From TrEMBL:
SUPFAM superfamilies, per database record: Nucleoside hydrolase
Single GO MF descriptor: hydrolase activity, hydrolyzing N-glycosyl compounds
Domain of life: Eukaryota
Official protein name in the record: Pyrimidine-specific ribonucleoside hydrolase riha
Length: 612
């Protein structure tokens, strides 16, 4: 017994030593920078995500991606796109958050899990609401939401299919993911979409603010060396000041800027100096040694073919990828208060995010925070900066100036003095390449290509390596000598009920009904990109011969008279974006991912207008 006792003492001592050593070691090992990316999953956004995921993981660890659901993509499509990217890289540990059905009550109480489908000013107690700012984003082709939702058809052609997918009632919400990851410990947040998710988080959980070490933002436009500061190409008649990410929810951006958390802004002023130039594009083409690089290049290439052609090289910028690069480079150096980094010149400026237009305190019916309320929403100050005219939509008459550019500044990251000024580190331009032997003229181009092609942690899968036996076969039914029944054309939107009806029509004996064509209207319960589910369903049923036509992207009289690719949402604003609404239809309640993949899909079918 005595011997035994001593033995245990020795063992415990050894365990003690090991434990102490481990503790010591944990303290000494550099802990990786934990990163949360909030993104609207546009092309430059996933370039940024891949650039971040390819960093040395013992230095920079992407822990979560949350989806900004009121901007350039639609939640159901965006979240499945995001699930496949970490899967390609064997990183299913990255948490992914989207949506949520919470609302904001009349008295300003923020319920849990607000989905961020709407800008805060339009957020009521459901997920349905008006597209006050989002109507500046084209919902259809030509680089609009339809193209972004399917990533120009490249997502289905290239990316492997992840194990994870959007599933109703099981999907972690953006707010849950933010609470989990931010309460765990110090974290850096990078925002490359609208600011709604983070603003809601900060308003609801002010006690967790201290865990956010720094916020890096791609967005805004501070000054302008040449012409208008903003980039609302669809809306400059009313607002030449705003940049899309801030314009998507100016009040949310105000909350983020004024949160007291240190902020670094990478605005258009800086990103405009680093386009996806022809030289960079051609170098990229020759430098695709990893799946990540291949995916980014193929996406850029298709984007170029389908949207801008030659203009691409001067109108498409590195935007979010550049912002991610600046963030990483600043974080590399500890105690880096002046934002020293390899890629951008930095300057401190005093700025704010404009949420309403002067004169303040005028009740003209444009501002639901104040109009018709004794106590302004969220207790905002009467006559304060939020109390002026708020842009009501495209071509808001208040904003239009005869024979001039518009005067509305909603979403402008303006330089100001006084109590509204926030001291922010701002990138002003991209730094030149230090290596004179390279033909690429900006330092970040080199880092981007090197990082995406870096061998460690390189992708396991692309679609062909994941499914080596997949063949693009079109199935056509053989009706032999059957007497065909009534010819039918089916006009559907893409809610679950419509899919049931479609299956029914296809199962009715062909002697009774001969389904000849399908016409899809994207103005109802699903977004246009959901058309790919119809192709897959027809493929499953062996009817790849049935043509599918996509109808007008806007309801009657909703498209804009100046630029027909944008327009109003007078009717579809009634359809919820969250559970039971668009996010569920766009994924067919998660079932869409289990359908066999048709060789037919949106964009593959369009003949691209090639500019060379
Ligand atoms: C990643 O970073 C760690 C810590 O700084 C370093 O020890 C390691 O060599 C790096 N790995 C690579 C592949 O660069
Ligand atoms: C939701 O808000 C509307 C007004 O916007 C109100 O009529 C309705 O009672 C509210 N519903 C709930 C459950 O709070
Ligand atoms: C997948 O990667 C392989 C090997 O790099 C390549 O041959 C193939 O074209 C890629 N698949 C797609 C769909 O690009
Ligand atoms: C960073 O700054 C803090 C406080 O100013 C200081 O204690 C710490 O030693 C600095 N760290 C480095 C690596 O310079
Ligand atoms: C910004 O404001 C601070 C005071 O908050 C002031 O000291 C500084 O000079 C201002 N900087 C600029 C660039 O205006
Ligand atoms: C709004 O302000 C009033 C008076 O300052 C205060 O009593 C009330 O609690 C505030 N409400 C909220 C929701 O902050
Ligand atoms: C505005 O433009 C129109 C035609 O371009 C011109 O006839 C008119 O005089 C201009 N008005 C002003 C105030 O400049
Ligand atoms: C690149 O060229 C500039 C002048 O053109 C020179 O000052 C610099 O030292 C050169 N850098 C390298 C790395 O050769
Ligand atoms: C469309 O708008 C025009 C002009 O605003 C109007 O005359 C017409 O009646 C509208 N058509 C429909 C179907 O609402």
């Amino acid at each position: 017994m005595v011997v035994h006792g001593n033995f245990w003492v020795v063992v415990l001592l050894i365990i003690g030593v090991v434990a102490a050593y481990n503790l010591y070691n944990v303290e000494c090992l550099p802990i990786p920078h934990r990163i949360l990316l909030d993104t609207d999953v546009d092309t430059d956004d996933f370039l940024a995500l891949l650039y971040l995921l390819k960093q040395n993981r013992s230095e920079f660890k992407v822990e979560a991606v949350t989806i900004s659901a009121n901007s350039w993509s639609d939640a159901g499509h965006a979240v499945n796109h995001i699930y496949d990217i970490p899967y390609m890289m064997d990183r299913d540990d990255v948490a992914v958050g989207v949506g949520g059905d919470g609302g904001i009550l009349e008295d300003g109480t923020i319920l849990p899990n607000v989905g961020g489908y709407l800008p805060i000013i339009e957020q009521g107690n459901t997920t349905a609401g008006y597209c006050r700012y989002r109507q500046a984003i084209p919902p259809g082709r030509g680089g609009g939401r339809l193209d972004i939702d399917v990533n120009f058809g490249i997502q289905r052609a290239f990316l492997p299919q992840g194990i994870r997918k959007y599933t109703p009632l099981q999907q972690p919400t953006s707010q849950q993911v933010m609470i989990d990851k931010i309460s765990w410990g110090p974290i850096t947040v990078i925002i490359t979409g609208s600011h709604t998710n983070l603003a809601i988080f900060l308003m609801k959980n002010p006690h967790l603010k201290r865990n956010i070490k720094h916020i890096y933002i791609m967005g805004g436009s501070v000054g302008s060396k040449n012409g208008d500061p903003g980039n609302l190409f669809s809306d400059s008649t009313s607002n030449p000041y705003a940049e899309f990410n801030i314009f998507a929810d100016p009040f949310a951006s105000y909350q983020v800027f004024h949160s007291g958390i240190p902020i670094t802004l990478i605005p258009l002023d800086a990103t405009n100096t680093i386009p996806v130039s022809k030289n960079f594009f051609d170098t990229f083409e020759k430098s695709q040694n990893a799946y990540e690089a291949q995916y980014c290049f193929q996406s850029l290439k298709t984007d170029r073919y389908t949207t801008l052609g030659h203009l691409f090289y001067t109108n498409f910028y590195m935007w979010d990828a550049f912002a991610a690069g600046v963030a990483i480079s600043i974080m590399h150096k500890s105690n880096n208060t002046n934002g020293e980094n390899e890629f951008a010149e930095m300057e401190y400026m005093n700025i704010t995010a404009v949420t309403s237009n002067k004169p303040y305190g005028v009740h003209d019916g444009s501002n639901p925070f104040f109009d018709g309320r004794d106590v302004p929403r969220f207790n905002l100050t009467k006559g304060g900066v939020h109390s002026g005219h708020v842009q009501t939509g495209l071509r808001d008459p208040f904003c239009i100036v005869k024979n001039g550019t518009g005067k509305c500044q909603d979403g402008y990251t303006a330089e100001v003095t006084g109590p509204e000024a926030v001291h922010v580190l701002v990138a002003t331009e991209a730094k030149p390449n230090q290596n004179n032997d390279s033909t690429l003229d900006k330092q970040f181009y080199i880092s981007f290509l090197d990082t995406l092609n870096r061998p460690p942690d390189t992708g396991r899968f692309n679609f062909t390596t994941q499914f080596p036996y997949y063949k693009e076969v079109l199935y056509k039914p053989d009706f032999g000598s059957k007497k065909l029944g009534k010819t039918v054309v089916f006009d559907m939107d893409m809610s679950a009920g419509d899919f049931l009806a479609l299956v029914y029509l296809l199962k009715v004996p062909v002697e009774v009904i001969n389904l000849k064509a399908i016409i899809v209207s994207p103005t109802g319960w699903a977004n246009a990109a959901t058309i790919d589910i119809i192709y897959d369903l027809l493929h499953m049923m062996g009817c790849d011969d049935i043509p599918v036509g996509l109808g007008d992207i806007f309801a009657m009289n909703q498209s804009d008279s100046i630029l027909s690719s944008v327009g109003d949402c007078k009717y579809i604003k009634a359809i919820p974006r969250g559970s039971g609404g668009l996010i569920d239809s766009d994924t067919l309640y998660s079932l869409a991912r289990d359908l066999p993949r048709s060789p037919r899909r949106y964009l593959k079918l369009c003949s691209f207008k090639k500019y060379t």
